[in-house]
Amino acid sequence: MSLPRDDAAVLSARWIEGVLLKRDVFSTVERGRFRGDQGEVDAVLRRLDSVPWWSYLPALHLFGRERRALTLARGLEVGPELLWAGRQALVRGFIDGVALHLAKPSGDVAYFRSAKAALRKLHRAGICHNDLAKEQNWLRGSNGRAYVTDFQLAACFKKRGRLFRIAAYEDLRHLLKHKRSYAPEALTPKERKILAHKSFVASLWLKTGKKVYRAITRGLFNFTDREGGGRRLVNDAPLLIELIRKNPDVRDIAIVAFADRRTGVGLYAFVEADRTALEAQLRNELTAAKGPKPPEHIQVVQALPRDASGHPRTEILQLVAMNQLDLIEPMMNSDTDRAFLKDILESRKNLRDRFNFEAADLAVPSTTDVVTREGG
């Protein structure tokens, strides 16, 4: 399938290809730059030309919902600005920030205050997001503020009727679930009461509609979206981790997913070991085991970045795998993390799909200096 001629002409003249962020049966999403009337800006493109024929109609429906919501949300400054929209492609502004599941704003009360204000703005404009249970759809900007993204399931209302009030209530309840995960001490008595009571529609959905939705998306469409990783991250990664751990030289391992222009979703394994020549051996062992397809990339590192509890910081590894290196800088919490970043940039594997970043541009000159982001 190809884009309509008008869409293709605009993108050919104004879009500069960058990093592929996601590809599934409903769209392809990539980060790049867009030449607008005010000059060239960072942006995100959603396009439908790689969508399979059998999922095209629902994909077009979701695309239309996002286009309507982003049009209505212009100027609210709580989500990406709509820069251009065609019949099967749209370009929205890039928000300098990371998703909630990567940012992990533990104890950040100001973030959740900002998130509640953002939600209030959307609802005043008649927009209910309808997909805020996903942490991927909440962003923490570099300025610390909350933003929402991915409006494919959004609904726009002209009147604040009963259906609007139910949808708005569920938007708020899902936000409060995230607040309970990261800043539970900041929940007010009223917010705890909201968390304890699902709307009738939500309860009915969980008992009926959600089962049908999962049957269609995971069965018919073969679609799973755990943190954007798809079925390989859900099904294959645990088995691969088990196989890799059998090698006595391996101390620890973390596997993350990344969008790949050729295969759709790729897996990137970061293996903690002293012997850097271990990669070929691990790949041979995985092939011999005749289990899941081996990861597209296996990188051996001296030490994985870890949080205060000692768990690998997969949020950093995820951004490395996706080549969104400029978003890592605000997440560097220690000299150990900075040393890891310098080491991993010099030997990272996923170099086919880059957003004009080079290791030299982001080299860490010392353990006390921060990483320099290209373009400020």
Keywords:
about 375 residues, alpha+beta, five-stranded antiparallel sheet, 11 helices, about 20% strand
Please describe what this structure looks like.
Strand 8 (138-141) and strand 9 (146-148) form a beta hairpin. The chain has 376 residues and is of the alpha+beta class. The chain has helices at 5-14, 56-72, 100-103, 109-124, 162-182, 189-196, 200-220, 230-245, 278-289, 314-321, 335-347, and strands spanning 15-24, 27-36, 39-47, 82-85, 89-93, 97-99, 127-128, 138-141, 146-148, 155-156, 252-260, 264-272, 297-301. The protein starts with a helix and ends in a 29-residue tail after the last helix. 39% of the residues lie in helices and 20% in strands.
Provide the low-confidence segments as ranges. Answer: 355-376
**What is the count of DSSP helices, taking H or I runs of 4+ residues?**
11
Helix-strand topology string: HEEEHEEEHHEEEEHHHHEEHEHH
Number-wise, the strands total 13
Structural class: alpha+beta
Query: How would you write the strand order of the largest sheet?
Result: 1-2-3-5-4
Radius of gyration: 21 Å
What is the overall silhouette? globular
In angstroms, what separates the terminal alpha carbons? Answer: 38 Å
Q: Give the helix level as a range of percent.
A: 25-40%
Overall mean pLDDT = 84
Largest sheet: 5 strands, antiparallel
Share of residues in strands: 15-25%
